[in-house]
Amino acid sequence: MTLLLLGLLLFLGGHSIRMVAPGWRTAQVARFGELRWRAAFALVALVGLVLIVHGYGAARLTAPLLWQPPPWTRHVAALLTLPAFVLLVAAYVPGNRIKAALGHPMVAGVKLWAFAHLLANGSVADLLLFGSFLAWAVVSFVTARRRDRRADITYPAGPVARDVATIAGGLLAWGLFAFWLHGPLIGVPPFG
Predict the structure, then answer these.
(1) Which of 3, 17, 18, 16 is nearest to 48 (CA)?
(2) Which residues of 143-163 are buried (b: 16+ CB within 10 A; e: fewer)?
(3) Strand pairing partners for 65?
(4) What is the dihedral of CA 57, 107, 33, 154, to 10 degrees?
(5) Which of 60, 62, 136, 190 shows the smallest number of beta carbons within 10 Å?
(6) Above pLDDT 90, what percent of the chain?
(7) Which pLDDT score is estimated for 128?
(8) CB 60: neighbour CB atoms within 10 A?
(9) Inter-residue contact 96 to 163 (CB < 8 Å)
(10) Residue 44: CB partners within 8 Å, gap ≥ 6?
């Protein structure tokens, strides 16, 4: 459990700096430069992610069960992750209406992903992993939306073709992950 907790601290802590210490972050970017700041941030996030993956993999084998999710929750989780993948893609396709409406679709996707996985998993390790991501995503989304409003930031919507590309990309990514990658990478086939 220690590796999982340390990974969550590094990954989510690093992703929380802009929320909890925006002035400090701005000062560090000015001090080290944007490129070095991003490199350091990426390194901390990568180390955190590796620790999360290894820590969760080990912890889920021995973590006490808090509740036994009914079998149907796996299907609900698989269904909820579909729009989560669309939201993830929406963060990277410029000028789509999803980003124009939400501002921060990746964080909204993380909320949906974490909630879906909390429904279908009931151990202490699951609660730590998915509960931490859900709590972080809720706070991050609210904070980012407030920051955008204060700075009068809007995200323009482009042509409908970008919306189609966003949805198609999300569906394709979800299908690849759900049917071919989740089992080998995570160890649990969603539809198996």
Answers:
(1) 3
(2) bbeeeeeeeeeebeeeeeebb
(3) 123
(4) 170
(5) 62
(6) 95
(7) 98
(8) 19
(9) yes
(10) 10, 11, 14
Residue 189 has pLDDT above 90, yes or no: no
pTM of structure: 0.93
In three-state form (DSSP H/G/I as H, E/B as E, the rest C), the secondary structure along the chain is CHHHHHHHHHHHHHCCHHHHCHHHHHHHHHHHCHHHHHHHHHHHHHHHHHHHHHHHHHHHHHCCECCCCCCHHHHHHHHHHHHHHHHHHHCCCCCCHHHHHHCCHHHHHHHHHHHHHHHHCCEHHHHHHHHHHHHHHHHHHHHHHHHHHHCCCCCCCCCHHHHHHHHHHHHHHHHHHHHHHHHHHHCCCCCC
Domain residue limits, the chain? 1-62, 65-192
State both tokens at 59. 């912890």
In tens, the pLDDT along 71-103 reads 999 999 999 999 999 999 999 999 999 999 999
Amino acid at 38: R
